[in-house]
Design brief:
This protein has 247 residues and is an alpha+beta fold. The protein folds into 2 domains: 2-115, DNA Polymerase III, Chain A, domain 2; 129-240, Box (Proliferating Cell Nuclear Antigen), CATH 3.70.10.10. It has helices at 8-19, 70-77, 135-146, 197-207; strands spanning 2-7, 24-30, 33-39, 45-52, 58-61, 64-69, 85-90, 96-101, 104-109, 129-133, 151-157, 162-168, 173-178, 184-187, 191-196, 213-217, 223-229, 234-240. A 9-stranded antiparallel sheet has the order 6-2-3-4-18-17-16-10-14. Strands 5-1-7-8-9 form a 5-stranded antiparallel sheet. The N and C termini lie far apart (54 Å). One of its GO terms (molecular function) is DNA binding. Residues 7-103 form the Proliferating cell nuclear antigen PCNA N-terminal domain. Sliding clamp subunit that acts as a moving platform for DNA processing. Responsible for tethering the catalytic subunit of DNA polymerase and other proteins to DNA during high-speed replication.
Length: 247
């Protein structure tokens, strides 16, 4: 059972965060809120997301699991005004989700959860370097790097300390170095890994709206981006595997 009302902007944050990586997901509903964990089709990137009941204007639910077509939901949200409340209600059989706003009432057929990939097990990571930066700075760096390359290197030099982002193309390159005045060094350690900008560009569209992003790095290890949504009532973690270049 699920019956809830949520602000359109908050619901859009939720759907946008998921759609950056996957087109469908298993949504776990409980009395305390909703959650999902999903991996992209190439097994390169993963999202973990939790949204507390406090993020909703009204919320009543019991433990259940639904299969959500994220692409379809994004299309519906294109019809919703910025400040419109959205009413969500799961039917008794758990097969359809009613999405209502203004005078519109969509009845959405849910996906069979048996056809959706099982929730991935998050890897056990102990990434030694942790920094915090604004979402705008990180997203701007990703966009700038994509002009010259399809990959970007994240590096942390503990001797300065400095966090550096470098993108090198066939003929052009770009480098951004951030020091203590522009970034918060939570845990200082040597780190360097290379990542695909194809994934980071999609993540960046969501990350760029966040006031603060926590970045966890290692040496040739995945990177983790942690941030909040829904005025800190929701938590998102993006995990991206490194890109290994042949010698």
């Amino acid at each position: 059972m699920l019956k809830a009302t949520i602000d359109a902007d908050t619901f859009r944050e939720l759907i946008d965060a998921i759609s950056a990586l996957v087109g469908e997901c298993r949504l776990h509903v409980s009395e305390s809120g909703i959650a999902t964990r999903a991996v992209d089709t190439s097994n390169v990137a993963m999202i973990s997301l939790e949204l507390d009941a406090a993020a909703f204007q009204t919320y009543s639910a019991t433990q259940t699991e639904i299969g959500l077509d994220i692409a379809k939901m994004k299309n519906i949200l294109g019809m919703v005004g910025k400040n419109d409340p959205i009413d969500l209600e799961l039917d008794a059989e758990g097969r359809k989700l009613s999405v209502s706003f203004k005078s519109y009432r969509y009845s959405i057929s849910l996906l069979d959860t048996k056809t959706i990939r099982k929730d991935p097990n998050p890897p056990t990571l102990n990434l030694p370097a942790v920094v915090k930066v604004t979402g705008e700075v990180l997203n701007n760096a990703i966009k700038a790097a994509s002009v010259v390359s399809d990959k970007i290197a994240f590096k942390i030099d503990p001797t300065k300390p400095a966090f550096t982002m470098i993108a090198e193309g066939d003929t052009d390159n770009i480098k951004l170095e951030l020091g203590k005045d522009e970034i918060e060094f939570v845990q200082v350690a040597e780190a360097r890994s290379l990542f695909s900008l194809d994934y980071l560009k999609d993540m960046g569209k969501v990350i760029g709206r966040s006031n603060l992003i926590e970045i966890q790095l290692g040496i040739d290890h995945p990177v983790q981006f942690l941030f909040t949504i829904a005025q800190d009532s929701g938590r998102v973690t993006y995990l991206l595997a490194p890109r290994i270049e042949a010698d």
